């Protein structure tokens, strides 16, 4: 037969005959293509840059897309390594039968090309079908308007083709390198050889401990500040590297020790398991690390996603104890009642009830704060710059329905983050006694973990003392503000209409400074959280599928390798029950270890995750902890289920007729 | 030592395979009876497809006969429960295979220990049993190596050690020299003769006259039936070789159908 026909034919049969490993590989690639394309499509849709509130989503998706690439490349490499190992014997045989290296290269190129095309076609068709759907889900999750046309830009197609083309090409390169360098008899024997035990194992172990330790350290000690996201990724990176080193070296040290312990090793139940694991310890370690890392990622991703979903309402409410806030420059205001009468009129017009209204004048003072000494800003103020809000006692009493009294040199203090703690405050040389530190204020929620918007309030005896104190800092430029907070009751559309009308009316009023409300804020939060949720769900799905596939490949490839061993052992007298219990023991060890370590990682990562969520205004620690517990439980169940499925696949392969 | 009662008895063995879709029936063994005394060294010869392997599988209790009975040391195979078969095999039979069947995951020593580990023996006892055996089989220096690091002959000697270490009542060998060069084959056959002289019962299935001539008796199988038996008596290896050769000539020329 003509060579031009036989090589493609051989490539095709090569794929078909090895369906048990190629089929999942093609599915994986197709799945990756699908996800990658959908992500890219959404990013490249113009509207996302134009729609209000969508900038967060866009930014997050952009980050997600890059991350996705970073995750997919090593993953596809990893699955590819299973394939080529399995093919080596066959390719060695071809080369003995007279296929030149050139022909083998062409055949392997064709195989790679077929797989690439099949995965692209399946992946893109699925993507085209589901892109619109996932797009709608994204819009829904992030609260963006749904009636937007969705396009599939050409550049997304091109980029997807290019990205996976490069990955396939790199895989082909590694395969060719491995296959053409070895001589045929090596290829034939390759699958039998045990792995050499790596040298310098203690260095590896030490590196592992150092990396893992520093990763854990960062995860535990990082404070909530602007560096938290960077620290989070740094910790993840260190933990991944550390886990890899530690699993590789640790498992080998452990297995060696077990083998040296004659009493333990020469027991029916341990003998086969331990020797089998030593036989392929490096590959086992790589699989274990991957399983462990992906498990941790699934857990953390789910934790963030679920916590965000459940905590979104309270996160929105956190910044808005009351629904809306209007602020005026007090001294330019003609009449305080002008706004109030407008509000009442417009509320009635829009069928919204106004409730819980509070209003008060206040000063904002920018100053230098060191412990309890407050003074005018200086050259070297730097990090000590802070601002203080001044309220009068009468306003405070009416807002909080209290009957406090104050002397001239007495103040009340309220901090919405950490407690002020001091008994006195020295303001520009004048000492004030702190009569009481307040624990709450109706329009500003106290949260010790809030790092981004810390505010301190002083309540002074009367308006005159406030003005005097402000003037010591800002002289004549000390301008008071007038703030009105209120709740709304009614249909959401009516509320929005009211706020719109009110904003328009205020724009005409003298001294109008700014306004904000919970509805707009809700959109912002939803847009950001929705983007995060979307990415979380997508990534959770990807991580889970990667996890399952790694488990599957590990069991399949080992099952095929172990089959002959189990046949021999049965001839030597291993009973069916022994086979079953050995398999279960082996798989349990292989699967149990990553799960335990993944849970440990989660525990260590919990603190930084909680802080990360604090940064998103989610302060309900109990909720997060509860979520963590629930997710670990659900994940463990899922993990055990997949363990049973894999174990039975493995058992079937091992017990299958040869 | 002379035992007067049969140690291994095969009575009217019949094995019929049914093809997968239940249509055709293939008779692998029609009616085979023979017995083996304790301490005997028996070779079973026959062409491909004559039923040798089927017979060996039945003797190994890896398969069950359609009809007939096998007794080892007065115990009938058919009376052993399925669950106990494995333990029975482990405790009473030792196997030597054509392609060695050593596990790549174990060193030679651990391969040899495998049946003992399955029996639950202590490490001390395992070592005690191994050291004289390893000396006898000349593999002491190789014990820590892995199967893929040693030659075929060395692998087969390790496999023999694995078969012998349980001190089985019966050694079953399936073409043990099939994958060996002539030098290794000769040395292995000498080893078989030696262990047989120490009282070990051996049943060996083989194609090779070279191998069969070492046995005390050769049983010929043709088309699922016992065709003929050749006893060594007092003859030398060479005389035995000629007897076998003559029988094979008859075996191949007789009958209506020509094989091969």
Give an account of the 3D structure:
Chain A has 19 helices and 10 strands. With 658 residues, chain A is an alpha+beta fold. In chain A, strands 2-3-6-7-5-8-4 form a 7-stranded mixed barrel. In chain A, helix 1 (3-17) packs across helix 5 (101-141), helix 5 (101-141) runs antiparallel to helix 6 and helix 12 (281-319) runs parallel beside helix 18. Chain A is elongated, with a radius of gyration of 33 Å. The mean pLDDT of chain A is 83. Chain B is of the alpha/beta class. Helix content of chain B is 37%, strand content 25%. Chain B contains 8 helices and 10 strands. Chain B starts with 7 loop residues before the first strand and ends in a 7-residue tail after the last helix.
What is this structure's SSE topology?
The complex is a heterodimer of chains A (658) and B (260).
Chain A: H1 3-17, H2 19-44, H3 47-50, H4 55-96, H5 101-141, H6 154-181, H7 184-189, H8 201-221, H9 228-260, H10 262-265, H11 268-279, H12 281-319, E1 324-329, H13 336-349, E2 353-370, E3 373-375, E4 385-392, H14 393-400, E5 410-415, E6 424-427, E7 430-438, E8 456-460, H15 463-474, E9 480-489, H16 492-508, E10 512-517, H17 518-572, H18 576-615, H19 621-655
Parallel strand pairs in A: 3-6, 4-8, 5-7
Antiparallel strand pairs in A: 1-9, 1-10, 2-3, 2-4, 2-9, 5-8, 6-7
Chain B: E1 8-18, E2 25-36, E3 41-45, H1 52-59, E4 67-72, E5 75-76, H2 82-92, E6 93-96, H3 108-119, H4 123-137, H5 152-164, E7 170-174, H6 182-197, E8 201-206, H7 209-212, E9 217-222, E10 225-231, H8 237-253
Parallel strand pairs in B: 3-8, 3-9, 6-7, 7-8
Antiparallel strand pairs in B: 1-2, 1-4, 4-5, 9-10
């Amino acid at each position: 037969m003509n060579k031009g026909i036989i090589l493609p034919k051989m490539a095709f049969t090569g794929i078909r005959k090895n369906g048990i490993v190629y089929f999942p590989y093609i599915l994986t690639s197709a799945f990756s293509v699908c996800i990658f394309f959908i992500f890219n499509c959404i990013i490249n849709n113009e509207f996302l840059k134009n729609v209000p509130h969508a900038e967060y989503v866009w930014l997050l998706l952009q980050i997600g897309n890059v991350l996705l690439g970073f995750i997919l490349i090593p993953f596809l490499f990893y699955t590819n390594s299973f394939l080529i190992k399995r093919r080596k014997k066959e390719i060695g045989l071809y080369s003995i039968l007279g296929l030149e290296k050139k022909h083998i290269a062409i055949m392997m190129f064709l195989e790679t090309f077929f797989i690439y095309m099949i995965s692209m076609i399946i992946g893109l068709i699925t993507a085209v079908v589901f892109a619109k759907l996932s797009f709608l889900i994204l819009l829904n999750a992030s609260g963006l308007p749904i009636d937007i046309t969705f396009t599939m830009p050409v550049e997304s197609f091109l980029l997807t083709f290019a990205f996976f083309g490069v990955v396939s090409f790199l895989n082909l390169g590694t395969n060719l390198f491995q296959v053409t360098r070895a001589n045929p008899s090596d290829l034939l024997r390759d699958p039998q050889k045990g792995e050499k035990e790596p040298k310098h194992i203690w260095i590896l172990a030490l590196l592992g401990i150092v990396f893992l330790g520093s990763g854990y350290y960062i995860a535990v000690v990082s404070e909530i500040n602007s560096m938290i996201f960077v620290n989070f990724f740094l910790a993840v990176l260190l933990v991944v590297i550390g886990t890899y080193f530690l699993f590789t070296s640790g498992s080998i040290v452990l297995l060696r020790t077990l083998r040296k312990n004659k009493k333990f090793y020469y027991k029916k139940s341990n003998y086969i398991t331990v020797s089998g694991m030593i036989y392929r310890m490096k590959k086992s370690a790589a699989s274990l690390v991957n399983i462990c890392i992906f498990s941790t990622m699934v857990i953390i991703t789910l934790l963030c996603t679920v916590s965000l979903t459940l905590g979104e309402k309270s996160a929105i409410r956190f910044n808005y104890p009351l629904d809306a806030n209007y602020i005026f420059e007090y001294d330019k205001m003609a009449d305080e009642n002008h706004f109030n009468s407008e509000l009442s009129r417009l509320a009635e017009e829009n069928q919204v009830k106004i409730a819980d209204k509070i209003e008060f004048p206040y000063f904002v003072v920018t100053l230098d704060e060191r412990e309890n000494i407050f003074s005018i800003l200086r050259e070297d103020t730097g990090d000590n710059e802070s601002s203080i809000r001044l309220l009068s006692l009468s306003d405070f009493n009416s807002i909080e329905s209290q009957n406090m009294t104050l002397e001239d040199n007495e103040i009340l203090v309220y901090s919405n983050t950490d407690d002020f703690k001091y008994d006195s405050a020295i303001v520009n040389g004048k000492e004030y006694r702190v009569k009481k530190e307040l624990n709450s204020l109706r329009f500003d929620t106290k949260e010790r973990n809030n790092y981004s918007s810390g505010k301190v309030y002083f309540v002074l005896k009367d308006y005159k003392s406030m003005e005097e104190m402000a003037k010591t800092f800002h002289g004549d430029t000390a301008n008071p503000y007038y703030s009105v907070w209120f709740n709304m009751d009614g249909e959401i559309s009516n509320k929005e209409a009211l706020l719109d009308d009110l904003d328009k009316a205020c724009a005409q009023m003298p001294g109008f400074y700014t306004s904000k409300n919970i509805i707009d804020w809700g959109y912002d939060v939803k847009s950001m959280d929705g983007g995060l949720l979307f990415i979380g769900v997508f990534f959770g799905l990807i991580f889970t599928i990667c996890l399952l596939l790694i488990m599957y490949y590990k069991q399949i490839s080992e099952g095929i390798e172990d089959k002959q061993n189990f046949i021999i052992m049965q001839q030597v007298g291993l009973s069916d029950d022994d086979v079953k219990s050995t398999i279960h023991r082996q798989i349990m060890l292989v699967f149990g270890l990553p799960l335990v370590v993944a849970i440990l990682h989660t525990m260590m990562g919990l603190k930084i995750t909680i802080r990360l969520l604090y940064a998103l205004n989610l302060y309900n620690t109990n909720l997060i902890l509860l979520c963590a517990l629930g997710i670990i439980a659900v994940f463990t169940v899922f993990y055990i289920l997949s363990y049973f499925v894999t174990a039975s696949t493995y058992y079937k392969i091992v017990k299958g007729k040869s | 030592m002379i035992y007067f009662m049969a140690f291994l008895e095969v009575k009217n063995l019949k094995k019929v395979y049914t093809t997968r879709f239940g249509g055709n029936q293939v008779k692998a063994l029609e009616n085979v009876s023979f017995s083996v005394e304790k301490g005997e060294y028996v070779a079973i010869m026959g062409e491909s497809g004559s039923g040798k392997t089927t017979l060996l599988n039945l003797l190994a209790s890896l398969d069950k006969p359609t009809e007939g009975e096998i007794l080892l040391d007065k115990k009938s195979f058919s009376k052993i429960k399925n669950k106990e078969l494995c333990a029975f095999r482990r405790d009473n039979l030792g196997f030597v295979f054509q392609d060695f069947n050593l596990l790549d995951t174990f060193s030679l020593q651990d391969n040899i220990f495998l049946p003992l580990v399955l029996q639950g023996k202590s490490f001390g006892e395992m070592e005690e049993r191994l050291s004289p055996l390893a000396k006898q089989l000349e593999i002491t220096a190789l014990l820590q190596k892995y199967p893929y690091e040693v030659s075929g002959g060395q692998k087969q000697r390790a496999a023999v050690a694995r078969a012998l270490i349980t001190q089985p009542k019966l050694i079953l060998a399936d073409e043990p020299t099939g994958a060996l060069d002539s030098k290794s084959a000769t040395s292995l056959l000498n080893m078989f003769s030696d262990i047989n002289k120490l009282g070990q019962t051996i049943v060996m299935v083989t194609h090779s006259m070279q191998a069969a001539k070492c046995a005390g008796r050769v049983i010929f199988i043709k088309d699922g039936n016992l065709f003929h038996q050749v006893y060594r008596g007092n003859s030398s290896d060479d005389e035995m070789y000629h007897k076998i050769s003559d029988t094979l000539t008859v075996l191949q020329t007789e009958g209506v159908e020509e094989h091969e």
